[in-house]
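Crash report, auto-generated. Payload:
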Amino acid sequence: MNIPKLKNKDLVTVSDLSRDEIMAIFRLTARLKADARRGKHHDFLYRKSLAMIFEKSSTRTRVSFETGVTHLGGHALFLDGNDIQLRRGETIVDTAKVLSRYVDGIMIRTFSHDNVVKFARSATVPVINGLSDEHHPCQALADFFTIYEREKKFRGIHLAYIGDGNNVANSLIQCAAILGINISIACPKQYEPDSFIVDNARAEAARSGSSLVITRDPEAAVKNAHYIYTDVWISMGEEKKAAAKKKALAKYKITRELLAKGRADSRVMHCLPAHRDEEIEGAVLDSGRSIVFDEAENRLHVQKAIMCALMKK
Ligand code: CP
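Recovered output after restart:
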């Protein structure tokens, strides 16, 4: 099996990867997924350890990374951010240096994106971003693998993201631009994705021949979309902003009515967890157009490929 060699030590944002590297990860993902489905696993990370630091809650990320490293013959350590010495003032630099003496890779879920950047700079082992306030690269890669296994191509595919321009939106924008997928983001002005990320993605999209549109109009965004995506309106740590965000985002909900304005064969995506009947109608999430559980499953397979690429010597 061909394990890609990546130019960067870490996966901090999707932009750490080139198009060729993402496609190589997807080819490995497809092989690992097919083998796992028939009960076959590969010891590519035999006796290697992954430290998983969680400063925020998780279901998918925690379980898929831990299961994934086990499938690969390695071992995961769950480190609750409240329990380790980081919480009592040990610096990120010192923590990253110490963990690098014990383990072969570090996955971190945290608040400030700068924490992930600092971890990656200070650790001598690979660091994987398991979600920060600005990015969720593993999610975006799993989502575009989900599209790729259905379409077998990216050229001409259109993804519409409806709702809050959050960390998931930022990573989807970066990944779409690199892969050459057309992407429309429908959101209120005050909840647009990060302007620095959008500007860089526009330049990347020009190179890959795709489009990136930011609009206030959800109907315009879904009109030609093959895939319609949303995420929760209130991200972890934003609870105080809940009332204002719910008001501003009210018209950016995925409903059966909104889907009827677009293609009859469009599919619905959500990174989960969902707040049913808030950002998406429960009936849409449960419908035959929803591929949300394929996305969730593919977190496991894509992350296995990422860990192999970063951690296998
Ligand atoms: N999508 C996602 O990252 O899920 P968790 O928060 O459950 O890990």
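Post-recovery validation: The CA atoms of residues 26 and 36 lie 15 Å apart.
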